[in-house]
Design goal:
single chain; alpha/beta; Rossmann fold; Histone, subunit A; 14 helices; 6 strands
Length: 305
């Protein structure tokens, strides 16, 4: 089984597709937003043409009004692994949602229990003072967790603070099982690019999303009978366009915020990935072709025990 990881816009999805064609594999997508139907442009899903050539799993499996979490991801990912094995096909997992990758490799973090009173109190604080206040507090008590959690991700911010109040310890200290060996035999390939290259690719991606109809996609989602889930409305690319449609920003401001928040996401991904063991990193040049990256990957895979 092969796992390809990397930050947003690193080229990991293109590599997974080309490699899957070469070795007759199926792809498991590790992405918290590609699971949602009709959220296509803003999540940069593989095009229909690619999905007609290679079988993908965990794309378009949820309604945008549904909640999705790491436990549900792991359940569906393990089902996909068994299905692919039963077809005697190779498995390629690819993604950048670091928490989900951790769960796939090492299993679920059991946590430190829950306290409904503490959680309700934190939710009340968020409603009264705003999520920014809670996020700043999280930075103070658990900087490592704050690096990995987006400012708009209220659920995870509140959960991290809940664990801290219950135990007096940061949630990040309870994730020691991630120091163990992976639960299954994965060959892990990581793609790395220089930050200026990442930024340039991010800017190009955001422009392409807007040019191909991201605003209309968001309008259509908001017009659906069932309201979007919190996860969907917090997704980068969607949250900013929703603010634009609500008259809180201009479209140019929304575009710049998408770029800024994507760069921040990439920074958090890099922080997570530094903690991953046994990653075989490929440093990708700015102008390196997809064919060359595939060639280097197959050579590297051949050298991994």
């Amino acid at each position: 089984m092969i796992l390809i990881l990397g930050t947003t816009a690193s080229g990991k999805s293109r590599l997974a597709f080309e490699l899957a064609k070469k070795i007759n594999a199926e792809i498991i997508t590790i992405d918290s937003m590609k699971v949602y139907r009709r959220m296509d442009i803003g999540t940069a899903k593989p095009p229909i043409e690619a999905r007609q050539q290679v079988k993908y799993h965990l794309i378009d499996v949820m309604e945008p009004s549904d909640s999705f979490n790491v436990g549900l991801f792991l359940e569906k990912a393990n089902e996909a692994i068994e299905q692919i094995k039963n077809r005697n096909k190779k498995i390629i997992a690819v993604g950048g949602t670091a928490l989900y990758i951790k769960a796939l490799l090492y299993g679920l973090f059991d946590g430190a229990g829950t306290d409904e009173n503490i959680r309700q109190n934190l939710q009340q604080q968020a409603e009264t003072n705003g999520m920014e206040k809670l996020y700043q507090r999280l930075k103070q008590v658990d900087g490592a967790a704050a690096e990995r959690i987006h400012l708009n991700d209220s659920k995870r911010i509140i959960r991290a603070l809940e664990v801290y109040e219950i135990t007096g310890q940061p949630i990040s200290t309870f994730q020691q099982q991630f120091d163990a060996e992976p639960k299954q035999d994965w060959k892990i390939i990581g793609l790395r690019r220089e930050k200026p290259t990442e930024s340039k690719r991010t800017n190009a991606r955001v422009k392409k999303m807007l040019d191909t109809g991201l605003v209309d996609e968001v309008k259509s989602l908001l017009a659906e009978e069932k309201p979007l889930s919190k996860q969907a409305t917090c997704a980068i690319g969607y949250a900013e366009i929703i603010d634009y449609l609500n008259g809180q920003t201009t479209l140019d401001e929304a575009a710049e915020l998408i770029k800024k928040n994507t760069r921040r996401l990439a920074k958090g991904q890099r922080t997570w990935f530094k903690t991953f063991k046994n990653v075989n990193w490929l440093d990708i040049e700015d102008d390196e072709s997809a064919e060359k990256i595939l060639e280097r990957t197959t050579t590297l895979l051949g050298s991994i025990d």
